[in-house]
């Protein structure tokens, strides 16, 4: 390593930067110690963004981060896993010694960042560098903290999303929750966090329909998306630039049970997975013509019965995580399984395999590409 660094230092720094941006985050964190110039380069926002895009294009498939929601059992909050095995690697977290609490995680990562939250705390975390930023409590969290009952202050369900204004490059955590105030049973309340002021603010009008808190919020193409909790299920989106809500039309799953639905992002498009016993179909939203295309069909009898799991009735849908470019397979997991096993499906051969099977449940999986990026 020392000889390689000496040879690189003899090169023009512009060339050194091009070499460095091809390296993985773990290596770059070590190379910061080579010189002050290298440290300055690695810590510059321009280099970090360029390195992230370069490494993402070269690496192919995302890493899988497991976020534990049962830390009281001695589980680690964050671990990365190795697909095709039962092994995982712990990611030390600075707040674990201070706060041994359960966390939920936003479904999407963005630029290598994830958002962890519960009823009292929220964090934006970079798992690769261990950087994190604690967010002050939003109004909903303050009400819960004082009353210890979501029904007492008037809020029944909550859901947090995390994304980025693609025009201003501004990151925005968003709380959206259903209100039970008198006369507002079908209304929601929306709070957006502003990193420049370190404060939450209300956005009005909020979603015109209550949302299903059981289903993950998904960020695609500059907007966060929720499924609505009304007679006919709809998709409501929130543009992070205009901060306006709108309803996506022509959903083919309007009469499905919430337990049979899941939202995800596949091939940079919004997708909704729907159980239509004995199959599960995945719909992909075409934003150009506002239509839904059926892109996958999963045979639940074959998928689950192959591993000794009752296929039907099942309470929860299989949640798609990603399309693995290297193997051209669909990666998904079953939210109802105690051990949170991950499966892959080959669309051509229809073959299913276990991609990850821990001895005990180690959390909720989130796909992410490691980065050096933080939010100042």
UniProtKB/TrEMBL annotation:
PANTHER family recorded: BNACNNG10540D PROTEIN, F-BOX PROTEIN CPR30-LIKE
Residue stretches making up the F-box domain: 5-50
Provenance organism: Capsella rubella
Coiled-coil region list: none
Signal peptide coordinates: none
InterPro entries in the cross-refs: F-box-assoc_dom_typ1 (IPR006527), F-box-assoc_interact_dom (IPR017451), F-box-like_dom_sf (IPR036047), F-box_dom (IPR001810), Kelch-typ_b-propeller (IPR015915), SCF_F-box_component (IPR050796)
NCBIfam families cross-referenced by the UniProt entry: F_box_assoc_1
Annotated Pfam families: F-box, FBA_1
Name of this protein: F-box domain-containing protein
Superkingdom field: Eukaryota
């Amino acid at each position: 390593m020392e000889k390689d660094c000496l040879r690189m230092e003899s090169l023009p720094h512009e060339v050194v930067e091009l070499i460095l941006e091809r390296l993985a985050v773990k290596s770059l964190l070590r190379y910061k110690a080579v010189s002050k110039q290298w440290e300055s380069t690695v810590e510059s926002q321009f280099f970090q963004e360029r390195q992230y895009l370069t490494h993402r294009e070269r690496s192919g498939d995302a890493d899988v981060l497991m976020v534990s929601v049962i830390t009281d059992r001695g589980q680690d909050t964050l671990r990365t896993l190795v697909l095709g095995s039962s092994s995982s690697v712990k990611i030390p977290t600075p707040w674990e010694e201070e706060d041994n609490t359960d966390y939920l995680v936003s479904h999407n990562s963005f630029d290598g960042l994830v958002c962890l939250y519960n009823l009292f705390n929220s964090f934006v975390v970079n798992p690769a560098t261990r950087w994190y930023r604690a967010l002050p409590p939003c109004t909903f969290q303050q009400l819960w903290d004082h009353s210890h009952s979501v029904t007492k202050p008037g809020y029944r369900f909550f859901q947090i999303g995390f994304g980025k204004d693609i025009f201003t490059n501004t990151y925005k955590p968003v709380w959206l929750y259903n209100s039970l105030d008198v006369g507002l049973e079908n209304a929601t309340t929306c709070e957006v966090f502003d990193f420049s002021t370190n404060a939450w603010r209300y956005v009005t009008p909020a979603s015109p329909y209550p949302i299903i808190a059981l289903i993950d919020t998904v960020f695609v193409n500059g907007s966060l998306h929720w499924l609505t909790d009304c007679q006919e299920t709809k998709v409501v989106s929130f543009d992070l630039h205009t901060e306006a809500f709108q309803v996506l039309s022509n959903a083919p799953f309007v009469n499905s049970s919430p337990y049979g639905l899941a939202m995800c992002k596949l091939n940079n498009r919004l997708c909704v997975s729907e159980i239509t016993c004995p199959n599960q179909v995945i719909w992909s939203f075409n934003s150009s013509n506002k239509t839904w295309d059926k892109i996958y069909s999963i045979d639940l009898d074959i998928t689950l019965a192959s591993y000794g799991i009752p296929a039907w009735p099942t309470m929860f849908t299989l949640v798609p995580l990603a399309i693995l470019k290297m193997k051209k397979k669909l990666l998904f997991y079953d939210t109802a399984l105690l051990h949170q096993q991950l499966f892959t499906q080959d669309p051509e051969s229809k073959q299913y395999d276990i991609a990850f099977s821990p001895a005990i449940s180690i959390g909720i999986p989130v796909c992410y590409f490691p980065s050096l990026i933080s939010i100042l």
